[in-house]
Design goal:
The complex is a heterotrimer of chains A (304), B (490) and C (339). Chain A is an all-alpha fold and 304 residues long. In chain A, 72% of the residues lie in helices and 1% in strands. Chain A has twelve helices and two strands; from the N terminus they run ααααβαβααααααα. The radius of gyration of chain A is 19 Å and the shape is globular. The relative contact order of chain A is 0.22. With 490 residues, chain B is an alpha/beta fold. The chains are: A mainly alpha (304), B alpha/beta (490), C mainly alpha (339).
Chain lengths: 304, 490, 339
């Protein structure tokens, strides 16, 4: 019988680990959606980041991997911005197309680089970085303070994005763009520029998230490895009410819901893990329905 | 040594397409002066001020601020010159707070504590306090208006241009607002008050300028003026007119059946808060053309839409005989679907007894034929019934809408600004159609923001003022009508 | 404009594919040749890979066209497909004793209902709370995928309990197949659905009103006196039902059982299918065929020329983007030239 403290500690650590890439992508998407743009290409950008990280890291180490991943996310985001913001085409469909393209491109390039046999490259994953002292705290210690680098980046991104959105002029302009484009334009805000910047930031985060999957968790690339995480990130943004703190909590909830299955396994309860997979989405739907209060998206979301 | 005027505009001319909005208008705003700019809708008042604020570039004329000629090229340039404009439509982001909107407009830093203090200080300074953290969407119209003014003042404006600020305010709020503007000028600022309301101008302004059809017809001190003399200047001569010189042959003096009856009808505002129409009671008979004279925003839109069945009343009785034809004000978003063809737009208003409808199915051949016939009947210039409606000119689009609505032998016709933006030929064609409809026994209710048009069409006249609908006595002069529009006869 | 843009888009997509392949060191000509052969090279290729792939794509595409015409963005076709597949499998396992004339329609009806049922919650959320159906339908995709996983590892798992898949469904619940091929009677349903939708939009008042709602909701409400929200809701339900039917067809015509990843992304490719056809039902027949050919050919391209099958998604993406850009340009032109 497993020691309950160890069990819960392990559960929390797993929750945070699962949540990290989701949180990164969702934080970026929060900025994007706050400017009025819904980016369904997030999944594709994450996937592209994952592959780019694999290639970059195999060439010259993890930091190159991260850098290339961010670049890949930015490039796809620029393409998305060109189509949906500059050319004013439908955001939903453009985003779906980007993801489709990314799936095709990453699959092709991967096979090109590593052969169809599936003898893929295995990379050493980043070791957890323990924060001295804090990592010794019971339960929370290993969960929050003995994780690899990307987790700290993700956690730091939360207060930074909050501060950006609500304590800087640039953040105010961004929010104005998403809540009242006509009025913001009247106040001199350059709507397209703001939205493009927000989208590119979202793409960068998505690329980083994909890199995290490979370099800090799985250790290799597999086709379609993001398995819908980009879409989950979008759901997390909704669940978190487009607020960085809310998004962080929602991401952790998703991570926890997924990690819950390990707990149940460990204590021998044969609950189908799929229920845990479904739980976060059902929660989001309930939240949307007002069971947890009225959800209000940025007023301009999705409108060209 | 004379003090230079705060704002001096000379010979301003501006044309929009085929409409000459301003013809060589002169305007002088003295320092410390509260100047009322009066005129009917379309007279050019807003355009003139938009030129001053840099939103519109004039075709001719010059602008001088504090004696120095300036090319006011943009609102940003205007703000730098100390000119602030408070528009009719609200320009605040509804889902942000008061403080955030002020920070956005005035370029203030966003740190919450100093920002809140600044908002409070600004509010106190001008006697316009606002809760800094309140979300704008939850504010009353009066408070939203207050925010608009604060936004202009926050940029240290010394010249305030206010476009119909009291149009959407209740009397108490309007008095408050005017008091504040008065304070502003007493403290050395200069203000232009664009307004329809004669009593308002007489009550607070130092000087008044009247525009009619783009030209200045009067300018002078308010002292010694009366409402009558101002009204005369605004809308023309004072002779008693025969309303509707061309009376429809089937004269509706009491004979025809009552096709529209409203009893104590109350209609809410489309946008949510408050009542737009209070206890309207009226009847319209077959063959009558009843016109509504009103300043925009006084309930006439809601009244017409309630009669047409497009807006649900809150209380009261509404009996309207069908079929009802409705010609909405905005033809491209409410009347037609620009991306669909003309035939499809005709089918849009289908009723089950239309010739191209057979048990839920559309016979497009019949519909197309019918559309082609309609195009001919209404002299619509279009290549054919299959072109997208958006490719037609405004006048032709309106004719299509009329054709669709009137071809069904409606018993009631409701028309909102049916000739807005149209040239003379198209306007006359549409007037003829409306008269024919009445001649064929329909009850016609028409509103136009152009008083002349209403007078030309209507056999009976109603006035909508602040939601109250009242009948204009026969033989009333233009001036009297103008006054009723403004005061509501109360 | 009508056919030019989609054709141009396909051409561009193929050209880009060829260029990319050449850059990557593949023999582009051979690859494209393999692609063509895999799709159209033989009767078997055409009937048993291209058409078989085209059937679910087309049915889903029709459903998405229906929703999009009404202004409702159904991104959940994937989930609705799975819902239909689950229902079809369950019923299909329980109708063993019945004659085909009862079994088959029951299975397909169940699929229809399940697909429609899967979109009820997003519809309700839209009507009641104005929730963007884009998000709500998207979320349910994941729930459906998990549900499939749950079913095939639980209540619907095969009797041997080895693999995560269901037992094969009853023989009487399977669609008849054209001898010598794998082409199943689902093609009839596909054609019927296309014809039905064509008739709906071309001839009925309801269908026209739906188009009006999608093209100009305000004018439809004011001038057409149409209840825009209700129509969009019905369109969404129909859309879900069609996607569910596609799932049922796939189970009763191809797989005869339920397992994970039954759909290689039909729900998303279906959006491209609908869009490329400009939301016209007869056009969807053509674009469904095109995408079916692309995906069928991709398999051959991989086997024979070594080009990863997923490369075809790039073509699909390019096609979508070109059409989108053309649409946006056309819209701007209309605004500019209107007087």
């Amino acid at each position: 019988m497993t020691d309950p403290v160890v069990l819960i500690g392990g559960f929390l650590a797993a929750a945070v680990r699962v949540a990290t890439p989701l949180l990164l992508a969702a934080t970026g998407e929060t900025l994007t959606e706050r400017s009025g743009v819904i980016n369904l290409g997030l999944e594709g950008m994450m996937l592209a980041g994952a592959l780019a990280a694999t290639l970059g890291a195999s060439a010259s180490g993890p930091w190159t991997g991260f850098a290339v991943a961010v670049l890949a996310g930015i490039l796809l985001a620029l393409l998305f911005a060109a189509v949906s913001i500059v050319a004013q085409a439908d955001q939903i469909i453009a985003g779906t197309a980007i993801t489709l393209a990314a799936v095709g491109l990453t699959g092709t390039v991967y096979r090109e680089a590593f052969g169809a046999g599936g003898a893929g490259l295995t990379l050493p994953t980043l070791a957890p970085l323990a924060v001295p002292g804090l990592s010794r705290l019971p339960l929370l210690g290993p969960a929050l303070f003995a994780q690899p680098m990307p987790t700290y980046v993700a956690l730091l991104a939360v207060p930074i994005s909050w501060w950006f959105l609500f304590r800087t002029r640039a953040g105010l302009l961004l929010r104005a763009t998403g809540e009242g484009a006509a009025e913001a334009r009247a106040a001199g805000v350059r709507i397209n520029a703001v939205r493009t910047a927000a989208t590119v930031a979202g793409g960068a985060f998505a690329g980083l998230a994909g890199a995290t999957l490979v370099l800090a968790q799985v250790g290799s690339f597999a086709e379609n490895m993001t398995a819908g995480r980009g879409y989950v990130a979008i759901a997390i943004v909704v669940l978190g009410r487009w607020h960085p703190i809310g998004v962080a909590i929602a991401a952790l909830l998703f991570g926890a819901a997924t990690a819950l299955q390990f707990v149940f396994q460990a204590i021998g309860l044969a609950v189908p893990y799929q229920l845990f997979l479904m739980l976060p989405y059902v929660l989001t739907l309930l939240a949307l329905g007002g069971a947890v209060g009225r959800v209000r998206a940025p007023a301009e979301l999705g409108r060209g | 040594m004379t003090v230079p005027p705060a704002l001096a505009m000379r010979g301003i001319a501006k044309r929009f397409g085929s409409v000459q909005a301003l013809r060589g208008a002169d305007f002088m705003l003295g320092q410390g002066e509260l100047h009322a700019l009066l005129g009917e809708n379309g007279a050019g008042k807003t355009t003139l001020m938009r030129v001053a604020f840099g939103l519109v570039r004039p075709d001719a004329g010059e602008v001088a601020v504090l004696g120095v000629p300036r090319a006011v090229a943009s609102p940003r340039a205007a703000r730098r010159l100390g000119i602030g404009m408070v528009h009719q439509h609200f320009t605040s982001v509804p889902e942000l707070s008061v403080a955030e909107n002020l920070a956005l407009a005035a370029g203030w830093p966003v740190a919450p504590m100093p920002l809140r203090a600044r908002v409070q200080e600004l509010g106190e300074r001008y006697g316009l306090p606002l809760d800094a953290d309140a979300r704008v969407s939850g504010l009353s119209v009066g408070l939203k208006q207050r925010l608009e003014i604060l936004k202009a003042l926050a940029s240290d404006a010394r010249i305030l241009l206010l476009d119909e600020p009291t149009a959407v305010l209740a009397p108490g709020e309007a008095d408050e607002l005017l008091r504040v503007v008065r304070e502003f000028t007493r403290a050395g600022g200069s203000a232009v008050l664009i307004t329809h309301k004669l009593d308002e101008a007489l009550a607070v302004a130092d000087r008044v300028t009247v525009l009619r059809q783009g030209a200045v017809v009067f300018t002078g001190a308010v002292a010694g003026l009366t409402a009558a003399s101002l009204a005369r200047a605004m809308i023309g001569d004072s002779e008693s007119l025969n309303l509707s010189p061309a009376r429809p042959p089937a004269d509706a003096s009491g004979d025809g059946a009552v096709l529209v009856r409203l009893d104590d009808l109350e209609v809410p505002r489309e946008s949510g808060y408050g009542l737009a129409v209070r206890r309207a009671t009226l009847g319209i008979r077959s063959g009558e053309i009843v016109g509504v004279a009103a300043v925009e925003g006084n309930g006439q839109r809601e009244l017409l839409r309630a009669v047409a069945g497009r807006l649900q009343p809150l209380r009261g009785r509404r009996e309207v005989a069908g079929p009802i034809a409705f010609i909405p004000e905005d033809r491209t978003t409410e009347g037609l679907i620009p991306s669909l063809s003309l035939t499809e737009n005709i089918v849009l208003g289908s009723r089950h007894d239309d010739p191209w409808i057979r048990r839920g199915r559309v016979d497009w051949k019949v519909a197309r034929g019918r559309t082609a016939a309609l195009l001919q009947e209404y002299a619509v210039t279009a290549p054919g019934p299959d072109v997208p409606a958006g490719s037609l000119s405004g006048g032709n689009q309106q004719k299509v809408v009329l054709g669709r609505e009137l071809s069904r032998q409606p018993r009631v016709v409701v028309a909102e600004n049916p000739t807005r933006g149209l040239d003379l030929r198209a306007t006359e064609a549409i007037h003829a159609r409306l008269r024919d409809a009445a001649a064929n026994g329909a009850a016609v209710l028409v509103y136009s923001s152009d008083l002349d048009e209403v007078l030309a069409l209507a056999g009976r006249l109603l006035v909508a003022a602040r939601g109250s609908i009242s009948e204009v006595p026969a033989g009333a002069t233009r001036a009297e009508i103008g006054e009723l529009m403004v005061t509501g006869g109360r | 404009m009508a056919a030019k843009v989609p054709l141009l888009a396909i051409l561009l997509g193929v050209l880009l594919l060829a260029a990319g392949l050449t850059l990557a060191g593949y023999d582009a000509v051979a690859a494209l040749g393999a692609l063509w052969n895999g799709a159209f090279g033989s009767w078997y290729a055409f009937s048993s890979t291209t058409l078989v792939r085209a059937i679910p794509l087309t049915i889903i595409g029709l459903g998405i066209a229906l929703a999009f015409q009404g202004g409702a963005l159904n991104i959940g076709a994937e989930g609705q497909f799975y819902a239909g597949a689950i229902a079809a499998t369950w019923v299909g396992l329980h109708v063993a004793g019945r004659p085909p004339v009862v079994a088959l329609p029951s299975v397909l009806a169940a699929a229809l209902l399940a697909g429609g049922g899967w979109v009820v919650v997003p519809v309700w959320l839209r009507l009641r709370y104005g929730v963007l159906e884009v998000i709500s339908t998207l979320l349910l995709n994941f729930v459906a995928a998990s549900l499939v996983s749950l079913m095939v590892q639980g209540p619907l798992q095969e009797s041997r309990r080895i693999y995560p898949q269901s037992d094969p469904i009853a023989m009487t619940a399977r669609l008849p197949v054209l001898p010598g091929t794998r082409l199943h009677a689902g093609i009839v349903l596909m054609l019927l659905a296309a014809a039905g939708l064509w008739y709906l939009f071309a001839r009925t008042l309801w269908g026209f009103r739906l188009r009006a709602v999608g093209a100009g909701p305000r004018a439809a409400t004011i001038s057409g006196r149409i209840d825009a929200r209700r129509m969009a809701a019905v369109a969404l339900l129909g859309s879900g039902a069609l996607a569910g039917l596609a799932g049922g067809v796939e189970v009763t015509g191809v797989s005869y059982a339920l397992f994970q990843n039954l759909s290689p992304g039909y729900g998303f490719t279906g959006i491209a299918v609908a869009l490329l056809a400009r939301l016209k039902p007869l056009g969807v027949l053509a674009t469904g065929l095109l995408f079916g050919a692309l995906e069928a050919g991709a398999g051959a391209m991989q086997r024979e020329a070594g080009v990863p099958a997923v490369a075809v998604y790039v073509v699909e993406a390019v096609v979508i983007l070109v059409v989108l850009l053309a649409d946006a340009a056309a819209r701007r032109n209309l605004l500019r030239t209107a007087t």
